[in-house]
Write a structure and sequence with these properties.
single chain; alpha+beta; N-terminal domain of MutM-like DNA repair proteins; Helicase, Ruva Protein, domain 3; four-stranded antiparallel β-sheet; 7 helices; 28% helix
DNA sequence: AATCGTTCCTGATAGC
DNA sequence: TGCTATCAGGAACGAT
């Protein structure tokens, strides 16, 4: 499940590999991945150059020449892989970009098929982003964060995962940050003490930065464009550790469902 | 404003 | 062994 750290790693890696390259060919093998008319998509993408690559929340944005942007969301199992054209194709590879004067390809692979890409005019980008996501977790201050938590009466875990409020956190890092800040995932945002809110803010920043540094978490499908794995899964404190001992106090890690998402926590360290 | 159920899809897992 | 049933998971959507 690519979250902010995984997407950041992908973006940094793609900058090294495809920035300034010209797309010479596009093969669409599964049309539903593309949220445009196929002919429009191919017409605009073909022969454009990749002039910039950015991340906002979990979105990847490829800025193309001709004033278009390609917005990509990997959802649960989407992968962007940079591979030689000789690399074997499988049935999960839904789209292939080829580049001028290159034998390498950028492939979009997605087992679950939930991810998508959409080509939009550059002038539409801000509207697109603001209608889907709030400010990125790496761009907000402790004060911004506290203000929102206090103004809402929401279960903290579901607030953290709501991309329209702040963007980039997913189940893994929200779970880990709550553990680090010793906050129960079902705590109500408006009643969390100021000191704890500050602690949570720094826990989120800390978890995200460390995960970026370790190349993200390869738990299920995540791979970097060069097919290497991340290493953050090796340092997880609570995620997917139900029934195991808390690394801080030794209690058994519990699991609750919040919005149909499993949430792991230590019943001793994270009291309601 | 917040929450809940449903949907998309398929590999993994459980149960028989 | 091989079958079927169930479930996870990000976010949009409609309903409450």
């Amino acid at each position: 499940m690519p979250e902010l750290p995984e997407v950041e790693n992908i973006v940094v890696d793609l900058r090294k590999r495809i920035l300034a390259k010209k797309i010479s060919k596009v093969h669409i093998r599964l049309s539903k991945i593309i949220k445009n008319k196929k002919s429009f998509f191919i017409n605009k993408v073909k022969d454009s150059k990749i002039v910039d690559i950015q991340r906002q929340g979990k979105f990847i944005i490829l800025y193309l020449s001709k004033d278009y942007c390609l917005v990509i969301h990997l959802k649960i199992s989407g992968q962007l892989l940079y591979l030689p054209s000789s690399h074997p194709l499988d049935k999960y590879t839904h789209l292939i970009f080829e580049f001028k004067n290159s034998n390498d390809q950028l492939r979009y692979r997605d087992v679950r098929q939930f991810g998508y890409m959409k080509l939009i005019n550059r002038s539409e980008l801000d509207d697109f982003l603001s209608s889907h996501i709030g400010p990125d977790y790496l761009s907000i201050s402790s004060q911004d964060f506290a203000k929102v938590l206090k103004s809402r009466k929401r279960i903290i875990k579901s607030l953290l995962l709501d991309q329209k409020i702040f963007s980039g956190l997913g189940n893994i890092y929200a779970t880990e940050a709550l553990f680090q800040a010793k906050i129960h995932p079902k705590a109500i945002s408006s009643v969390i003490k100021d000191v704890k809110i500050k602690k949570l803010y720094y826990a989120i920043q800390n978890v995200l930065r460390k995960a970026i540094h370790l190349g993200g978490s390869s738990i299920n499908d995540y791979l970097r464009p060069d097919t290497s794995k991340g290493r953050y899964q090796q340092v997880l404190k609570v995620y997917q550790r139900k029934g195991k001992r808390c690394r801080r106090c030794g209690a058994r890690i519990s699991n609750v469902k919040i919005n149909n998402r499993s949430s792991y926590f230590c019943p001793e360290c994270q009291r309601l």
